[in-house]
Design a protein that fits this description.
alpha/beta; Rossmann fold; 2 domains; 5-stranded parallel beta sheet
């Protein structure tokens, strides 16, 4: 019987649930409900595993990890991000990597629109002012009729485009893999990146973190944007140069931002954003809903089951 290990069920979403029951039906399963203290402990936990169910991105599957394990055949990731996995090293070792694309698209897109609207309408700033006994009357930003530039038209980017169209925004986009049929169907104009920076009222990020996308938003690209622009990031923190963004917000080089992800997580005091009123923050929880959790975990298990049955699905590599 195949051996399945969950090395990082912390905080726990697998142990004691129907997901654990499903895992036990397809293999001998061991679940660790604490965070691995270091890389060596992670390797120790999974040394005899045929399959890893990866719950948290704090586990790093780097080149050294793959050099030290021998039995492993598949890592099934809960989520879409793979920046914590050395994909080249996995390929060289012949280890399959899968993820769960699309399951969080609606939830993350809803969160994206929420951050955008909250930043534009100064929701957090006004809320704090009212609680302090004030009654602010400053102008806000109306988004109907404005242009949102979406960077990355995967499942989340597409859903964000649909929702933005629903509140009357014009949608333009840039993506690594253009889907002309989708763009035509809902009326998206595909443009070059520099044009997107220059004409967008809102810039929303929906691309994977990779060497190609690190610091994509930086001082140079911010200089191309409107001073009234809003930046929203529900993708990965390092896609934005945080120092450059903070400076732009402080100097009002852009209007405001909505951020669910950061260069270093969790975000703790002191941090760059403490004193900024023109940024709305959330704790990397855009995809955390009961519906997403259930669907994502079920697909994570299904990926392993299909792999053992000889039918690979949702392959990253």
């Amino acid at each position: 019987m195949s051996s399945i290990v969950v090395p990082d069920d912390f905080p726990s979403v697998v142990s004691g649930t129907e997901i654990e029951e499903k895992l036990n039906k397809i293999g001998q399963t061991k679940i660790f409900c604490t965070k691995p203290q270091n890389d060596d402990q992670l390797i120790e936990r999974v040394q005899n595993a045929d399959a890893i169910i990866n719950i948290r991105a704090f586990c790093k599957f780097d080149k050294i990890f793959f050099e030290k394990i021998n039995k492993l055949k598949i890592i099934s990731i809960w989520g879409t991000g793979t920046d914590h996995v050395d994909l080249d090293a996995a390929k060289q070792k012949g280890i399959t990597i899968t993820n769960t694309p699309g399951v969080a698209a609606i939830s993350v897109a809803e969160h994206t629109i929420t951050l955008m609207l909250s930043a534009a309408r100064k929701i957090n700033e006004n809320d704090c002012a009212i609680r302090s006994g004030n009654w602010p009357r400053g102008e806000m930003i109306q988004l109907h009729g404005k242009t949102i530039g979406i960077i990355g038209l995967g499942a989340i980017g597409k859903q964000t485009a649909i929702l933005a169209k629903g509140i009357g925004m014009k949608v333009i986009a840039w993506t690594f893999n253009p889907d002309q049929e989708f763009a035509k169907k809902i009326g998206i104009e595909l443009v070059e990146l520099n044009e997107l920076y220059e004409i967008s009222d809102v810039i929303s990020l929906h691309i994977r973190q990779s060497p190609e996308t690190l610091n994509l938003i930086n001082k140079e690209t911010i200089e191309k944007m409107k001073r009234s622009a809003i930046i929203v990031n529900t993708a990965r923190g390092p896609i934005i140069n945080e120092k450059d963004l903070v400076e732009a917000l402080k100097n009002e080089r852009i209007s405001c931002a909505g951020l669910d992800v950061f260069e270093n997580e969790p975000l703790v005091k002191p941090n760059h954003f403490n004193e900024l009123k023109n940024v709305v923050l959330s704790p990397h929880n855009a995809g955390i809903t009961p519906e997403v959790t259930k669907a994502g975990l079920e697909l994570t298990v299904k990926n392993v089951e299909q792999f053992f049955n000889g039918a690979k699905q949702n392959l990253v590599c």
